[in-house]
Amino acid sequence: MASPGHNLLVLLLFFIFFPCSNSKLSVDYYNKTCPQFASIMEQIVSDKQIASPTTAAGVLRLFFHDCMVEGCDGSLLITSTSFNRAERDADIDQSIPGDAFDLVTRAKTALELQCPGIVSCADILATAARNLVTMVGGPYYHVRLGRKDGLVSNASLVQGNIAQPTMPLSDIISLFESKGFSVQEMVALVGAHTIGFSHCKEFSHRLFNFSKTSKTDPAYYPKYAEGLRKLCANYTKDPTMSAYNDVMTPGKFDNMYYKNLQRGLGLLATDQALSVDRRTKPYVDLYAANETAFFEAFAHAMEKVSIYKIKNGKKGEVRHRCDQFNAAKND
Known about the structure:
By secondary structure, the protein is mainly α. The protein folds into two domains: 25-161 and 306-326, Peroxidase, domain 1; 169-305, Peroxidase, domain 2, CATH 1.10.420. The protein has twelve helices and two strands, in the order αααααααβαβαααα. A two-stranded antiparallel sheet has the order 1-2.
């Protein structure tokens, strides 16, 4: 029978030669190979957000949608070719603002000039999302670095991995749980709706011919519903028409989103459902009353999202361009 000491030695050797994927990530990953990384990211992000204030919400959505499909590997940044319909052309991703992709492109260009072939697009996106959350008033959280960029991007992989605005809440909870996130973490992450906007088509069913007894969803605060009906009156002719997710403080990352839910000011059906379902209502009430609790929960959940199914080693690469795989240059 092997001695305890022998077993311990075997266990240590296992972790040395077969380290877990996340152990290769660190906040100071680029300190020696690209010491300008943090300052370049800070400058690019700041300039872009000042020039285009909707960038923060767009990048946050881009980051989350990227991570939920095959992990945080920059696969959503890839453009389609005649041989492959990439993730960004899936229906739910087509509404992600161009400013979000533009920021990543600008950061990658600047970093390639200083540190060619070193910084991954996945790390750029994760860092940009964190910096922008902080810049618009949200919490700071640590982003561990060292992700590789994924080698696959296919629109067919998106369906079933990202919550739709018309999905029943039970399905959304199941989706998050399948990826290892608790109900509380889900409610905290959805708090990202405190910034940004949604297109009218995503909530029009709540405004027009909702039921035989009510034109609009009675869960809406009446005056809010009236304003949305006017705003979205011509949404079928103009699909770009949209409304702020948080009607009170749309450009500030705060806990107003949860307060809005308590007042019937939740824009999407999935938003409003959080405030009444027994599984989610306690967290909505907690975060509405305590912004510090929301910020702490959001920061923790985002750190967890940022390492979801990350790629390293031969499972990924550091792309030369964020919108195409390196192999494309050799075809």
